[in-house]
């Protein structure tokens, strides 16, 4: 059983200067200003059985990236195992191309949570 979700528009930032290290009696520091490198989307799948997490950062948040993520997850799961994936009701999860992917992979079953249920 997998719990799959995504977080879109994560800011990819770098500090303008390295922070000062921890020292006895003093916390580590970092500058207040940063350099922006755009955004990324994180797809993640939690294996409920053993607690492992598979993830992938991608530039866009579309069905193509979601299908690539499913393909990567599929390769990690031993052949012959049934896969029950809990997903939210984001439109990408119900797109016709994702449904076609599910039809080609009959061992996979999606369980979609209700609106505002995740």
The rounded Rg comes to 19 Å
Number of domains: 1
How much beta, percentage-wise?
A: 35-45%
Shape: elongated
Q: Helix-strand pattern, N to C?
A: EEEHEHE
Q: Strand order, biggest sheet?
A: 3-2-1-4-5
The biggest sheet, with number of strands, parallel, antiparallel or mixed sense and barrel status, is: 5 strands, mixed
The end-to-end span amounts to 16 Å
Class from secondary-structure proportions: alpha/beta
CATH class descriptor name: Alpha Beta
Alpha plus pi helix count: 2
Number of strands: 5
Low-confidence stretches: none
- Looking at CATH, which topology would you report? Nucleotidyltransferase, domain 5
Question: Average pLDDT across residues?
Answer: 84
Helix content: 10-25%
CATH homologous superfamily identity: Ribonuclease H-like superfamily/Ribonuclease H
| CATH architecture label | 2-Layer Sandwich
